[in-house]
Amino acid sequence: MTLIKIALADDHKIFREGILLELIKFKKVDIILVVENEQVLLDKLTGSRLPDIILMDIRMPILDGIEAPGQIRLLYPEVKIIPLTMYDDKDMIYAFQKMGACGYLAKSTNPDEIFLAIETVFNGDFYFKILDRRDYLL
Q1: Helices (DSSP H) in 26-66: which residue ranges?
Q2: Domain ranges across the chain
Q3: How many CB atoms lie within 10 A of CB 126?
Q4: pLDDT digits (tens, 9 = 90+) for 45-74
Q5: Of 3, 42, 9, residue with least CA distance to 24
Q6: What is the pLDDT of residue 17?
Q7: Do residues 54 and 9 touch, judged by C-beta distance below 8 A?
Q8: Measured between alpha carbons, how far is 113 from 118 in angstroms, rounded to an integer?
């Protein structure tokens, strides 16, 4: 079985550690990188061991929430990004789609939905639960 390589970036330690504990339960993932901000994420990404998916808070202290994913997509177009946020309005989700995100998760999401989103995106589909499929911009 191929494990899904995951990177996690969030500036809130309690959230980072909590989601990490949940991800460890999901036997299909290999957590290869856990960082506290988007700049460290950009610095630590390397072509030799890129994640398949980055779960990434969009409100971190150094780069804008749209800027960092855009840079990652330019440098590593094969890496899929699922933003994590406490905001769940459609305008923000459309902005994620435009910057190339493959999914979206609210921080209030339950662990089963996180696992579903990871599998869905890894298998080449998109995961924007709040949107109806006909609303997808992609």
Answers
A1: 38-44
A2: 1-55+67-106
A3: 18
A4: 977 789 999 999 887 766 666 677 888 889
A5: 3
A6: 95
A7: yes
A8: 9
**Selection from 113, 90, 6, 112 nearest residue 55 by Cα:** 6
Task: Report the alpha-carbon distance of residue 95 to residue 101 in Å, rounded.
Answer: 9
Non-local (6+) Cβ contacts of 72 within 8 A are 41, 42, 45, 54, 79, 81
- Predicted model pTM: 0.89
Give one word for 124, left, alpha or beta, with left for phi > 0 and alpha for psi -120 to 50.
Answer: left
Q: How far apart are CA 121 and CA 87, in angstroms?
A: 20
Task: Look at the domain 1-55+67-106 and name its fold.
Answer: Rossmann fold (3.40.50)
Counting residues of the chain whose pLDDT is more than 70, the rounded percentage is 88
| Residue 31, phi-psi category: left (phi > 0), alpha (psi -120 to 50), beta (remainder) | beta
Nearest to 51 by CA among 111, 108, 3: 3
> Which of 13-27, 30-44, 72-86, 122-136 is predicted with the least confidence, judged by mean pLDDT?
122-136
